[in-house]
Amino acid sequence: MSELNKVMVEKYRNDFLKEVEANVEEGNWVKMCMQCGVCSGSCPFGPYWEHPPQEIFMMVRAGKREEVLTSESMWMCTSCYNCIVRCPRELPITHIMHGLANYAHRLGIAPKMNPTRRFAKLFWQNIIKGGRVNELKLSIGLYFMDGFSNGVKKGLEMLPVGLGLLKTGRLNPFGLLGGGKCKGASDIHKMLKKAQEIENRRKGFAS
Amino acid sequence: MADIKIGAYVCKGCGLGERLNTAQLMTVAQREGKAQVVREHEFLCNSAGISMIKQDIEKEGVNHVVIAACSRRAKTDAFGFDSVAISRANLREGVIWVQPDTDEAKEITQEMAADYVRMGCAEVAKMQIPQINPSHGNNKRILVVGGGISGMTSAIEAAKAGYEVLLVEKTGQLGGWAAKLYRRVPSHEPYADPMETGVPALVRQIEADKRITVHLNSTISRTSGAPGQFSVDISKESGGTSTENVGAVIMASGFEPYDLKKLPELGGGKSPDVVDQAGLEQLARAANGAAIKRPSDGKEIKSVVFVQCAGQRDESGKHLAYCSGHCCNTSIKQAMYFKDSNPNVDAVVVYTDLRTPGNGEDFYRSAQRKGVIFTKGTVSEVVPGAELQVKFKDLILNDDAVAKADLVVLATGMVANSGVDIDTAGGAPNVEGQKEGGESKVVSILNLTYRQGKDLPLLKHGFNDSHFICFPYETRRTGIYSCGPVRRPMDAQQAIEDATGAALKAIQAAENAALGRAAHPRSGDLSFPTFRREGCTQCKRCTVECPFGAIDEDEQRYPQFNESRCRRCGTCMGACPVRVISFENYSVDTVGYQIKSVDIPDQFSEKPRILVLACENDAYPALDMAAMNKIQYSAFARIVPVRCLGSVNTIWINDALTSGYDGVVLMGCQKGDNYQCHFVKGSEMAYYRMSKIDDTLKGMSLEVERVRTCEVAITDIQRAPKIINEMAETIQKIGLSPMKF
């Protein structure tokens, strides 16, 4: 268990709803759910979720902290916004799902091998480096996510696509060497650092 | 009446002139209908047509009028002549609109029209002009039984309208349950917080009103009479009885909470820390805004669980089968008591279906904002102890769970204080379970001296029968209106609206009675039932079958009609085996002679005759609407509107069959618990009587398919004509009746 997680468990003993309200983006909306189930019924990925949003909200209220935060469910959200559009109580469900996923990740208890989480991490690291996504590096990073031999295999599989992109000028092979950074990338780093500080201070995360 | 002068008027408007041979109809009216004055008019309902009729009434002495034009439901204002008997031959909706406009159809269409003219003349010849009920009273004072929020509101509303009010309350103070509340569910924007009950203000208003006389610690020990002339004994708890006269009665006797001791599995009676909603109000009143303390040890309550539907919506038959409607909002309100005094108190509402009528949805949201937790689940057990354990099944997570609490509140629901159940005579339990062990004694509220019983009839679950579908305040005792939770479960806001409505109905009843007129639904009807004493066999069927308990017995055991209590449905007339009961304008003869006047072609003509007796409230308008939509039906049908199917005397069916009709269709309203009958029991009585018609048919060697009774709603615009056509097909299959002479 991470240090931050221990702190949170201590701070909100037996009251997971309050913890969610304080620390999760849009978490103060969870209490307003009226359990109609429209979100779960509207979700195109609904059948694949272990706990659809309706259940997640009920679990938050029932204090099932471990089960919620270690769940893969929130990571299944594809941000289609169907639930937000349909929720009769106007809960920002998509945002809450991402908020919960993000919170679990910060606490270090999100499922380690969840592909969405891993992709999100890759993407984040990629984009903050130069302030702009380096697509070539991102895709290669993705191929090699599950080890070297898998990476080579996947790379060979995708070779015809890559060559096609190259031919039509949609892929810059020099991206591999770096470059493509925006001007003032270091300023972006400063901004991100400041934002992190503000957020940590606001949410009471020890930093 | 010796000097009947019939005037028959045939209209040629609305296409009647083109489709029908009106000259022939006039001949029929004159020769067969014995009309002394017969005229036709291009447009009978216009001012020239009306003044023509008026002139005949004034100058020619016409006192019985047959209007051969449109349905009796159309142009009632134009054809409403005072002090004459009127019959309407329905040539428009009854004939030309339901028959094809073709050369082949011309003959039978004309025959249909001629029959309706014959029927109109026959009916009017047997009608008399109604005279006002001679034994009407004109007391307009309103008696309100029950001083809760419903009773107080009724009293105030009736007084505001200028009527004197007697308010009788069983206990020593006004206010009822509402006075025992700490706060009320809000009745106005923003529906966010509990509000003051408003009871003290109502009490002050009543005390300040000179028109309202309050009797505390009093009950009604006898009620007799009729609207406009009720006589009521008011007995004081300390002894002593005063007799008062009133014109109408409002029964607002309210409810009792379902006894929580009947729920031992939920901790009812097992722990002082398991209370019902009334118990929590008491705790909240004691705390008065400060932290609420629990009964067992006076500890400040830090966690509370509300159990919804405790002993309600029960399918096992042990507890209340119904939803009391107010409890969800009440628990939301009570959870707010805790959250408002200390947001850190855990308040959990365990529900299966949260129902928040009115603007309760906003109130629910407000509670969620305040941090009340709502959990969908069914509670199986409450384990008593210093910390109570509420075991429940979480229905969202499909999980067995336990909630710990300092206090548990059970939402136990309402049991009506409706007095004795007169249908299960002797006061059998009105709610299963409520009387288990026989600890609670059912006491009559009104102590009516009516032959049918001491209190208002019940519908189900022990609530008053109050025509919940169409006319919510109407009970089955004319001039007595029930309101509030005695009628159906409801909250204070609904009770206030209900009480206002009941006050207006009571005023209406007293005013109508003073004019000698009927109350709803034949409001304004001046006719009333009379009987031929020398023919009566004292069989008592009329006194038993009257849906409104209007008929008592006199000292010589003859029926005593209490005209002001009568709703003029004619169920007594239909019940009478010796046919001695009649109304001046509606009798066994007015309908019987219509039936007999129809021309019956011989057995080989291939022209059957179908008699349709249609309830004037639902089936007849449905057929009229079918006609407006030009939905055609068999030209062999002859439709006679009846006040209620309950007024159908089986002699009509007998006469019809013996005089050669090939089929009979009875169309009445829906019966049973979800009845739509305007007279509550009329259609049910008709069904009961008709259930025995098969023997009669067999005795006449006729097929049982020739008579059919069916439930027709006003919306059955397609179905009603279809039923007639089905009968026509049946007759085609089984052949014409051999009884034609």
Could you explain the architecture of this structure?
The complex is a heterodimer of chains A (207) and B (741). By secondary structure, chain A is an all-alpha fold. Chain A has two domains: 109 residues, Alpha-helical ferredoxin (Fumarate Reductase Iron-sulfur Protein, Chain B, domain 2); 84 residues, no CATH class. Helices cover 57% and strands 0% of the residues of chain A. Chain A is built from twelve helices and no strands. About 2% of the residues of chain B have low confidence. In chain B, α6 packs across α7, α8 runs parallel beside α9 and α14 runs parallel beside α16. In chain B, the strands form eight sheets. Chain B has a seven-stranded mixed β-sheet with strand order 13-19-14-15-16-17-18. In chain B, strands 7-6-5-11-21 form a five-stranded parallel β-sheet, covered by helices on one side. Chain B is an alpha/beta fold and 741 residues long. Chains A and B meet through α4 of A and α10 and β16 of B.
General form of chain B: elongated
Strand content of chain A: under 5%
Q: Predict the CATH topology of the largest domain in chain A.
A: Fumarate Reductase Iron-sulfur Protein, Chain B, domain 2
Q: Total helix count of chain B?
A: 19
Largest sheet of chain A: none
Give the count of structural domains of chain B: 5
> What is the assigned CATH homologous superfamily of the largest domain in chain B?
FAD/NAD(P)-binding domain
Q: Stretches of chain B where pLDDT falls below 50 for ≥5 residues? A: 426-439
